[in-house]
Amino acid sequence: TDEVFMNAQEAVGAHRDTQGLILMPTFDRFYCPRGCGRSYKRKDHCWRHIKYECGVPRQFKCPYCSRSFAHNSALKKHVVVVHKILHKDLGNRRSRKSGPIA
């Protein structure tokens, strides 16, 4: 059965290489087609990883220090925990590629 599995894996890899970025489930996991090794139980989580994390510069910059994050929720948590700024005090502050926005 290991040989069958390896043949199936090779076929998936060959197909992926000819088709661009596609997601093929393997044992109920979706592996990143960019070869970074990450895997997810849900397809949409894998696509989110591809779109915002895998080889992509972190888009959400902290307006108080030099840290940056792949997800806005991580930035918000960082600001509350590290800078001791309450969530309600953040208002609609968002900082993306262009830096801090007041």
UniProtKB/TrEMBL annotation:
It is found in: Nucleus. One of its GO terms (molecular function) is zinc ion binding. GO terms for cellular component: nucleus. Residues 60-83 form the C2H2-type domain. The gene is zas1_1. Keywords: DNA-binding, Metal-binding, Nucleus, Repeat, Transcription, Transcription regulation, Zinc, Zinc-finger. Belongs to the krueppel C2H2-type zinc-finger protein family. Transmembrane segments: none annotated. Its main location: nucleus. It comes from the Eukaryota. PROSITE patterns: ZINC_FINGER_C2H2_1, ZINC_FINGER_C2H2_2. Gene3D superfamilies: Classic Zinc Finger. It comes from Schizaphis graminum. This is Zinc finger protein.
